[in-house]
Automatic annotation (TrEMBL):
The gene is CUL4A. GO terms for cellular component: Cul4A-RING E3 ubiquitin ligase complex. This is Cullin-4A. It comes from Oreochromis niloticus. Pfam families: Cullin (PF00888), Cullin_AB (PF26557), Cullin_Nedd8 (PF10557). Belongs to the cullin family.
Amino acid sequence: LNSWRPVSSRWRYELAYEATALRRRRKVFAKRLPPLTASKHPGSKLAKHLNHTAISQSANLIMAEDTRQDKRASFSITEHSANGMARTSAVASGKTGTSKKLVIKNFKDRPKLAENYTEDTWLKLRDAVGAIQNSTSIKYNLEELYQAVENLCSYKVSPTLYKQLRQVCEDHVQAQIHQFREYPFLCSLDNLSFLKRMNRCWQDHCRQTIMIRSIFLFLDRTYVLQNSLLPSIWDTGLELFRTHIVSDSAVQKRTVEGILEQIELERNGETVDRSLLRSLLGMLSDLQVYKDSFEERFLTETNRLYAAEGQRLMQERDVPEYLHHVARRLEEENDRIVSYLDQSTQKPLISCVEKQLLGEHMTAILQKGLSTLLDENRVTELTLLYQLFSKVKGGLPTLLQFWRDYIKSFGGEIVCTPEKDKDMVQDLLDFKDKMDNVAQSCFARNESFINAMKEAFETFINKRPNKPLILMRFSLLRAGNKEATEEELERILDKIMIIFRFIHGKDVFEAFYKKDLAKRLLVGKSASVDAEKSMLSKLKHECGAAFTSKLEGMFKDMELSKDIMIQFKQYIQNQSEPSNIELTVNILTMGYWPSYTPMEVHLPTEMVKLQEVFKLFYLGKHSGRKLQWQPTLGHAVLKAEFKEGKKELQVSLFQTLVLLMFNEGEEFSMEEIRAATGIEEGELKRTLQSLACGKARVLNKNPRGKDVEDGDRFNFNNDFKHKLFRIKINQIQMKETVEEQVSTTERVFQDRQYQIDAAVVRIMKMRKTLSHNLLVSELYNQLKFPVKPGDLKKRIESLIDRDYMERDKETPNQYHYVA
């Protein structure tokens, strides 16, 4: 037994009980005690092991007598059952011959107890219990006390013994309440001292109950276990402590108030004894009064505290600081749950904190700080905001709405502010990148937030019809981007296509993009032909082949023109009178390119001669075709001499005509220049302004000024200086006039009218008869650009007037197709 003896006294006495059972097995082999494996007390597995060991040892002890006489003798065991039958079985055989038999018989009847044994034994046990309760030494051997309890239980004294033990324990607990009820004591102690006294009383009670149960373990594991209505000795101790101490109103109130005071001190930043709180709250939980006596009041106080704190801090602190405070408070409360609160409190406590610090202030937090967080790109705080709002009922839908409104507002400001038109496309790309990063990094790639962002972009980007499309048409592929790598250009194009998807009325983009692409190709201002083709491929993938067919035709024309010019140069070299002017001509198919207003200008004789030579060359190869010269996008390189030295000027054809006049004279008026060149007045003013009022002023204007007026006179600036040898002055060709924008827009709307008419006739031809509402619905499904119902009604009326369809005579809203 010494090798099995554990350190704890509680387990030591259980082993003593098992050892007693072993001794009883030696005396009464046939008698079987109740099985211990079903016991609800500790040590049952060990009891099962010892029970089995006792039986085997009792047989071995008896058999040992015979085996000592003759170790080689064979023997058998005769088992006697209760009905008197015996069965003999051979166990071992050392050699042939007679075998000795071992017969095991029942002992005689159980001896009777002495007359005063019960009373004397109870007095011993009561003294031992009193010594435990008073923390004094026990007079008797603990094994002797355990054996006494077993003896009483064996002789059917268990009910009386159980009642007597309960009464003794109850008397002791009732006496303990006086230390908490005495008025001077109750008033003299502060709450912390009171809690310590209560905890000491509880700890003493638990220790005493465990010790008493160890002595009366046999009673607890036989009689009490067999009577399901009786509480165990441990449960009885808890019941008595709950009934006579904790259920006392004054004691319970003081205890709960003390615990709440300690928790409030900790919430205010002070250090408290967490082990004391853990012990006392564990006491309330063990006594099954935690929820009613403590939790309800604790949650009420928590609710009050955080409601006041939320109101105060929302006014005192900015949103990032407030969010970090809320996160810290939640972390603290979770730590309290782990440290000393019952786990059942976790859900209502955290819900209370989230409701008072977040739920009640969701709108105020977002109104006060969301815009600032997004403007400053505060990723950490935005992530925290999302995490906190995801815990509150209705938090994410509220955040989603404010997120959508912010994007609409900020984006609308970019699109609808004319002063920002210059940087609109880049601002939109940067804003989209920023919002994408927030959705990915801060909002956990929430699908709802990503969809809301797309919806918001589509809303605000179409607030100013066609303007983003007009600005996007440049596609950031002008000469200023020639230093960009192919990877950078490809990334820029991908971003542009993302914005492009949000825009309605892509036909406007097509019109402006085609006009600017023509300028870039003809003037040589494109950053990269490969990048232009890549953009074209993306547009084709996004909008279909019909959208880009004309744009692809423009590239084909440019490639064919290169081949034609190679042949033309060979043709020129074979001429008897070669020219000192190098001519490059681009042959454009009229259906592919934007329409340009023909302008008759007075070209120099050498230029006219070259044009005639090219005309003969081209028509000789392609009979039946007609050539129409377009000087608008022509450009040239002039060699000029200044005091500083020779320079090369890269200028437009109109600038060329103006500058060549100063080979014939020193000074000319605007009217003289217009008469000599034949350039239209508005275009001439722009040309003269670029030569005399820009950065490279190769002409002087008199009087000085930024604008060109009638009567102004111009002379050659011989003192012109520039650090470069070749100077570009033809940027004016890339600039778009207001008239060009208006003209392109009007042409797009005119094309839209044709598309509406064609769609109406197509639908009516198929349906024959249709109501107005159904016809409008079908039109919205087929048309790829935004259109107002009023505009549709006008086109329908126009078709009725032109006898393509007619109204029903009885139902005016019904239309019939007219074949």
